[in-house]
């Protein structure tokens, strides 16, 4: 089912500066409001990109674009995303601005969630791939709900861990942050490669 096929792309959405930002905000001074604002901003921007792409694909289909053409577009987007993820892997150290997240405000956190999750190159490409894929399959936009929900759950996990575990989570989160920073690109490439294989199967099938 299409809504299950796009679920793994939720990991691509959060692995990198996205989950690192969520971890920093979960240990910030006003972590509850900051984390909530970050997730809210992400919700709006991801929904916007997926929706616009979906209806663009539906419109293209009505103008005569074939299902194969839409799948070819998805394939190109995925390949570009793989290149982007590979290029970003070299950034082994978190950006300098992340060091300021400990004193972030909810307004800043909202803007960060909106811009980072909606317009960071790999995230933008992934959301475009989801919307285009659903449009190409003739699936309803609601099939993107699982992808969105899982992405937001991943982003909320650091703050949920702090809520449930308290200071024990504050000791565990830095280790998780370091692992994600070092290894997430490998998992990203594997997930994207899997989706590329499925798209190729649809294209030649």
One letter per element, helices H and strands E, the order comes to HHHHHHHHH
Poorly predicted runs are: none
Total number of helical segments? 9
Mean pLDDT: 82
What value does the Rg take, in angstroms?
17 Å
What does the overall shape look like?
elongated
Fraction of residues in helices? over 70%
- N-C termini distance: 16 Å
Beta-strand proportion: under 5%
Q: Number of domains in the coordinates?
A: 1
Structural class estimated from helices and strands: mainly alpha
Q: How many β-strands, per DSSP? A: 0
Specify the biggest β-sheet. none
Overview of the structural elements:
This protein is mainly alpha-helical. The chain has one domain (2-204). The chain has helices spanning 2-5, 9-14, 17-26, 31-62, 67-88, 106-119, 121-137, 145-165, 167-204. Helix 4 (31-62) crosses helix 7 (121-137). The radius of gyration is 17 Å and the shape is elongated. It starts with a helix and ends with a helix.
Descriptive terms for the model:
205 residues, mainly alpha
Structure summary:
The chain is an all-alpha fold. Helix content is 80%, strand content 0%.
């Amino acid at each position: 089912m299409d809504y299950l096929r796009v679920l793994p792309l939720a990991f691509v959405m959060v692995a990198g500066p996205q989950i690192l930002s969520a971890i920093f905000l979960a240990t910030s001074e006003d972590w509850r409001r900051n984390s909530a604002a970050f997730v809210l901003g992400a919700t709006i921007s991801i929904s916007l990109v997926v929706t616009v792409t979906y209806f663009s694909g539906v419109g293209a289909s009505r103008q005569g674009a074939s299902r194969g053409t839409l799948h070819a577009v998805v394939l190109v987007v995925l390949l570009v995303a793989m290149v982007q993820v590979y290029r970003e892997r070299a950034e082994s150290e978190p950006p300098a601005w992340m060091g300021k997240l400990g004193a972030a405000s909810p307004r800043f956190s909202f803007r960060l969630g909106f811009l980072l999750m909606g317009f960071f190159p790999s995230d933008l490409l992934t959301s475009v791939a989801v919307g285009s894929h659903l449009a190409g399959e003739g699936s309803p936009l609601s099939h993107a709900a699982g992808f969105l929900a899982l992405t937001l759950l991943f982003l909320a996990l650091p703050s949920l861990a702090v809520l449930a575990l308290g200071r024990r989570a504050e000791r565990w989160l830095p280790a998780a942050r370091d692992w994600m920073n070092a290894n997430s690109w490998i998992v990203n490439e594997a997930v994207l490669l899997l989706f590329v294989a499925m798209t190729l199967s649809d294209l030649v099938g």
